[in-house]
Design brief:
Elements lengths: L6 H32 L32 H14 L2 E7 L21 E7 L5 E5 L8 E5 L5 E10 L4 E6 L22 E6 L7 E15 L5 E8 L11 E3 L5 E8 L14 E5 H15 L8 E3 L2 H11 L6 E4 L4 H4 L6 E3 L4 E11 L2 E2 L3 H10 L5 E17 L5 E20 L3
Length: about 425
């Protein structure tokens, strides 16, 4: 009788047989499934089709199967859509330096010296604000509206302390859309910030970030220091300059003006630190900048009396108008027959020969009204100024404290309103 095999010897053989059987079964099953998968008309889906993807979330789907937008996404889309209509692409260069290519083409194709940036419409009648450094040394500035319409822009005025420039465009009678202004004093660190501009020439580009800090000291491109800048980590690159910084509701809280610069170089690009001038500072300066810039439209060659003088002197004569206090020799105003305030008797008696009461039919009871009427006539080759010829004599009396009193001396005469023509400077 042969000896029985030891149990320890049988276990490996059994394990090997079982393992081999499992291997054969697995291989057979895999081949069968593969055959079924590739059989014509098979309805068996791929295994990969059953694997969840990163996009399989619990958000509702539209009827076409696409995932619906979140409320935050929808709000940002609405803000961008609404704000874009008021944001312009700016191209500034020397005359004959600008190419004829469109604003969306590669910025590298532009000739050296051409500046690219952004701006936004300040008022419906055509004022545009942007950065002053974009137009430094340039004499041919164009803005491109959101619909692609290019418009030549006239320089109005600038404020280098804010790196702010005011331009004006002719919208051919159309009322341009304007952005809602926020209050930068209400801005808080941590809130959302949206920047829309033309980084690297790509106009109407939206970037998103946070308000990172407030009241930062920043050196503006002209080399001036500004205290009180808004810092943001919204991606900002060359070309964003002049564009608005918006809050989550689409209100302007600042104007993008600078980005962080590599120490000791002239290289600037996005490193997560950008700066904006607060909108409160800009809004405070805009009325004065607009009035200051009106002189660029017409070479009137005259200076008007302060409103206090106008009101005090003309109230007695019951005339609503402005008095020229100085008129340049050989100026358009002098040639048109507009004469200034004249002093007699060592400055104790003044004669008013001319009072301006309207421009192109618009009444001008004060200097502000005169400036606004002049601006409205900016697209005309000439303007018609309504004047009254007068013989008004004023006695100026001085008190012991140095206070002056201007008294209208009778008799005086007031002529009919006549129109004189002033030619535009350019």
């Amino acid at each position: 009788m042969s000896p029985s095999p030891k149990p320890g010897l049988l276990r490996p053989l059994w394990s090997t047989s079982v393992g081999f059987g499992i291997l054969v079964f697995t291989a057979t099953t895999a081949v069968t499934l593969a055959c079924i998968r590739w059989m014509p008309g098979s309805d068996v889906p791929e295994v990969a089709d059953r694997v969840p993807t990163a996009f399989d979330d619990e958000r509702p789907r539209d009827q076409d199967g696409t995932t619906s937008l979140t409320s935050e996404e929808q709000r940002r889309i609405e803000v961008f859509t609404r704000a874009s209509a008021s944001i312009v692409h700016i191209r500034a260069g020397r005359k004959d330096d600008l190419t004829t290519q469109g604003p969306d083409e590669d910025a590298t194709a532009l000739r050296p010296g051409t500046m690219l940036g952004a701006g936004f419409i300040w008022s419906a009648n055509g004022y545009v604000v942007t950065n002053a450094h974009l137009i430094d040394g340039q004499n041919d500035v164009h803005v491109v509206l959101a619909n692609g319409t290019p418009l030549r822009a006239d320089f109005v005025s600038r404020d280098d302390a804010l790196d702010l420039a005011v331009l004006c465009v002719d919208a051919h009678g159309s009322r341009l859309p304007v952005l809602d202004l926020g209050r930068s004093e209400n801005v808080r660190v941590g809130q959302d910030a949206l920047a829309i501009g033309s980084p690297l020439g790509r106009n109407h580009t939206l970037t998103r970030g946070l308000i990172s800090a407030l009241n930062r000291r920043v050196t503006l491109p002209q080399g001036r220091a500004f205290e009180g800048a808004i810092q943001t980590d919204a991606p900002i690159n060359p070309g964003n300059s002049g564009g608005p910084l918006l809050d989550s509701s689409g209100r302007v809280i600042g104007m993008v003006t600078a980005l962080n610069q590599i120490q000791g170089t002239d290289i600037s690009f996005n490193v997560g630190i950008g700066y904006a001038i607060p909108i409160d500072a800009i809004a405070d300066r805009m009325p004065a900048l607009i009035r200051q810039g009106l002189r660029h439209y017409y070479d009137l060659g005259m200076t008007l009396c302060p409103d206090q003088w106008n009101e005090e002197m003309l109230r007695q004569a019951e005339i609503d108008g402005v008095i020229p206090v100085h008129v340049d020799e050989n100026s358009a105003a002098m040639r048109a027959g507009i004469y200034p305030l004249q002093a007699r008797n060592i400055g104790t008696t003044f004669t008013v020969p001319t009072v301006i009461v309207g421009v192109n039919g618009i009444p001008t009871p004060n200097r502000k009204a005169f400036d606004e009427a002049l601006f409205e006539a900016r697209d005309h080759s000439s303007i018609l100024v309504d004047v009254r010829r007068t013989e008004l004599d004023y006695l100026v009396e001085y008190s012991s404290t140095g206070v002056m009193r201007r008294t209208l001396e009778p008799p005086f005469t007031i002529g009919e309103i006549v129109q004189v023509e002033l030619l535009r400077r350019r």
